[in-house]
Design goal:
Helix content is 70%, strand content 0%. It has 332 residues and is mostly helical.
């Protein structure tokens, strides 16, 4: 059954170009202009598809290089302090922006370059409001990366939606010209008289579809790759936020008062303010209305944050319990 297929002579096959070339030769000036516009749009769409594919593939490889170096770091700020960089990686852009903003708040520098050259203090901490500024900086970096990844995609969208309509315009125009020519000649309409004009009119529709179909597949493929890149950036930003918060953010106390003012205000506070949270025995203090003993704040703060917790007036009941427990232990 397959022998007739293998016996075909490729040189004798009709690839469908004979009718296309005949119709193109019979095309009128508006049809040729529309066909040329569609061919130009096809060249632009193919160039955009190849350039965006190369860009996204390169970004994926650079993201892998950056994450390989980032995972080998001992601390979250070590790549920043070592000036480790992977230009062109969207994940590196998010990390660089967040680390630079964090370094500015930790060092108190006004210039990002000065903050990069300044060694980070060992016991430096930031407030939740300052951490919000770091998150905003990473969000801006993600937005800038999205703009870069999605640039020139409008050309593909235009090719997908506009090419068929341009082709349809050429077809309608060609059919109108054909019927107008038959009516002006005064002869009776026949297949032989109308076939050249109709064939020429259909050329623009064929060209429009040839432009739109590859652009549609390329657009869908590139959009899926871009969405993957954006999701990776959001996930990495969330991971980076958690690492920054665990190591550099102190949630226990307000940053409005210095340590000396906190201690003075704490000693002058009435004892009844903390009596409800004091434990009667050696166990942990119990929060009123809570279930069981509330853990001290030192148990869930990281080492850097726990070492920086002052003995000033706390801003939440759990911090009050931790302060009361430390005072009891100091009295013993």
């Amino acid at each position: 059954m397959l022998s007739p297929i293998f016996a075909l002579n490729v040189n004798n096959l009709d690839w469908g170009t004979r009718g296309f070339s005949y119709a193109l030769n019979e095309s009128h000036l508006p049809g040729l202009i529309i066909t040329g516009s569609l061919l130009l749009l096809s060249v632009i769409s193919w160039s955009v598809m190849f350039s965006k594919l190369a860009m996204i593939s390169g970004a994926s490889q650079k993201n892998y290089r950056f994450m390989f170096g980032f995972r080998k770091a001992r601390t979250v700020m070590e790549p920043y302090e070592a000036n480790f960089s992977v230009p062109g990686s969207p994940l590196y852009g998010v990390y660089r922006t967040g680390s630079r903003e964090l370094a500015i708040h930790l060092t108190g520098a006004l210039d990002p370059e000065e903050a990069r050259r300044t060694r980070l203090p060992e016991d430096a901490m930031i407030t939740p409001d300052q951490m919000g500024a770091v998150r905003n900086a990473m969000d801006r970096a993600i937005g800038e990366a999205m703009v870069s990844l999605e640039s020139k995609m409008t050309f593909l969208a235009t090719a997908v939606s506009g090419a068929p309509f341009l082709g349809l315009l050429g077809t309608v125009w060609g059919v109108m010209e054909t019927f107008s020519g038959v009516a002006a000649s005064g002869s009776s309409a026949s297949i032989q008289s109308m076939a050249p004009g109709v064939a020429a009119a259909l050329v623009t529709t064929v060209v429009g579809l040839l432009v739109a179909i590859p652009a549609m597949f390329g657009y869908n493929f590139l959009v899926s790759r871009i969405r993957t890149q954006v999701l990776e950036m959001h996930n990495f930003a969330a991971e980076l936020t958690s690492l920054f918060e665990r190591e550099f953010v102190s949630y226990g106390y307000s940053a409005a008062l210095p340590r000396e003012a906190n201690e003075t205000a704490y000693r002058s506070a009435p004892a009844a303010a903390l009596s409800a949270y004091a434990a009667p025995g050696p166990g942990l203090p119990v929060q009123p209305g809570g279930v069981g003993a509330a853990p001290p704040i030192d148990s869930f703060l990281p080492g850097r944050a726990a070492s920086r917790v002052p003995d000033g007036p706390p801003i939440n009941p759990i911090a009050q319990q931790a302060a009361a427990l430390r005072r009891q232990q100091a009295g013993q």
